[in-house]
Design brief:
Length: about 625
Amino acid sequence: MKPKDIIIRIVTALVIAIFMLYGGLVLCHFLTYSMVDVELLEQQMVMSLLSPGPITQENYDNMLEVVVEILDGWGFYDPWDVQFGKYLNKMFTGDWHDSYALLRGEKVSILITPAIFRMIEVMILPIILGVTIGIILGRISKRNRHKWKDQVIQIFTMIGLSVPVFFLGIFFQYNFSYQSGVFDAIGYKSSTLLDPPFKTGFMILDSILDGNWNLAFDITGHYILPTSVLTIAIIALVTRLTRSRQRFSSTFTNTLVIGFNFGLIFAYTLVIDIVFTISGISGLFLQSFFQLDFFVLFPVVFLFIFIFVIGIFILNIVILIIGIPSEEQKIEVSSTRNPLNYKSPIMIIGLFLTGVMIVITLVPEWISGFSMGAAKAPAPGAWDPPSASHLLGQTVLGGDVLAIIIWGTHDAVLFGLGAVLIGLIGGAIFGVVASLHRWICKGIMGLMIIFYLLPGFLILVLVIMVFLLPQPNYWILMLISGILMIPIFTRVMKNIMVYKIYKARRIISYICLYTVPTILIYESLGFFGFFQNSERINLGNYLLLAKYHFTAPHAIFWPGFAIVIMALGFLILHFEFQDSMREDPILSLKEGSFFQKIKTYLSKFKRKGEKNITLSDSA
């Protein structure tokens, strides 16, 4: 790649980052300000600022004037454009005022600073190890396709991607803390120890600088389990991404891929914070919402956006540097086709698991023997172990674990496939148009970045908070999740229109792949407590309730295992379909398409007038 092309791509990445930051702030401002009932906020702030004791009308009115002045400074009484300007000024200058609910009278910056450093402290080692090991494993798997090394790595990747982070975290807590007592599983340090003096913000380093080695070891001990869980999840994600990605990609496409996967890492971190009660920025985000402390919520979401955009920009530059194809690089040519092997043991397992899930989704009442209402209804024997009448035991309020798993599988699979179908339909429309000409493609792929102004998981949480409480609407959430997947399927359908081969296999492969994160995100929302009184059965919500009852491990293991099986069945089919397509890289390229520029890299490998070229397939 010429220096001029490198500069153009760097500038493009910078322009995209600026656009994403501005668009993300607009979206964030709209969603967070939409939560606010100004009159209720005035009353809450007045009551929090008044001194203890009898309240007179004069004192109330005087304090109300102070509160109105504060809210006016945030633009709550202004038109949208003025309000947005004041919001940006507050965010970028750090004038975040005081907390009025979480910790009354405390500077918001003082609350947020240690929380964000704790998040970084927990994330930094997993990201370094996860990305490094994931790239290594992905490349080993690529070089040894269909050999034993590749198969071992594939199995690890599938399991790592299938296990929900919250279930793996609870599993580690139960085995390595509750049962063995080897590691601490709650908090970032022992409650009897004081925080070290603030120097760098990183508590382990600050403890060492303060000479308090006992505190440094204590904090390290508390971080072992959450960092281990996060590392495993990131390794699996990066391994899959490394094995499936091609070198020739545009900045727009890279941004979409990075945005989706970086959004998953953000969701992982949020879940880890909640599972292990680390008191990081993610936990502060949920606390500020549930206590309606908007002066904490606004800057927390702003920081999420800022970190998200900066992370995508840095990763774009890293991929540009390490992904530039060298002139010596050769492209292997093959004319063999590899039919799907439906008799392979892995394929049989995948078909069996997926078939069982589809049957459960279609006839859950017939299989469980319970209606959904009966499965959720209170019964004697809360948290009782397995028995003849309850084969997998009972959970909260005496619910039958097996019936809850069957109905929970029904809701999760229906949610995942429904959202993917919505994304597929939207992606097909945009993808067909994008395949017509490279400039149309660039415009549409640039438009798709709008869907990644915020991490998808954060968008879902904010939408629930703003529009769908007290109980999220299952069907509306499915629709929003499907809309967020339109960019993914736009890229998939565009490639299908360009590459004249394996259309059905590609579509099935990606339906299976993206059903998995949709199901896991749905269950994660339940783990955050958003479906506690819902008409649906969410297994993540039952895991949230069971994590405080380690004396009833059956109520933790079986629902979590059911989620793993759901994800694993779809992932196995994805990997099998994906590998069957990689054996025949003879692809047809439309003239004038977005991939036309790839011809410059392949000119010395093709003769004039040829219609087919050979490319490494991409996921």
